[in-house]
């Protein structure tokens, strides 16, 4: 089973919550209104929603890298 590491460049985040709308299991907004990652390591079960969030992010600040 493949796994990916997910992270956000919070300096680029504009807090529009697009990522949360696509994948609330992995992303949420913090008290500053910026996105945070709830699950840094995901598997195939969450890949599609994270990929959609990456593609839809208006700030292009979400990254994912396959780790195995």
UniProtKB/TrEMBL annotation:
Record keywords: Electron transport, Iron, Iron-sulfur, Metal-binding, Transport
4Fe-4S ferredoxin-type domain span: 4-32
PROSITE patterns assigned: 4FE4S_FER_2
GO molecular-function term, one example from the UniProt record: iron ion binding
Cofactor: [4Fe-4S] cluster
PANTHER family: FERREDOXIN (PTHR36923)
Protein purpose: Ferredoxins are iron-sulfur proteins that transfer electrons in a wide variety of metabolic reactions.
Protein name, entry field: Ferredoxin
């Amino acid at each position: 089973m493949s796994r990916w590491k997910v992270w956000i460049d919070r300096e680029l985040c504009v807090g529009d919550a697009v990522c949360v709308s696509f994948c609330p299991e992995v992303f949420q907004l913090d008290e500053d209104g910026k996105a945070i990652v709830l699950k840094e390591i995901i598997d195939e079960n969450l890949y599609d929603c994270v990929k959609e969030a990456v593609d839809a992010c208006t700030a292009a600040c979400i990254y994912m890298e396959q780790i195995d």
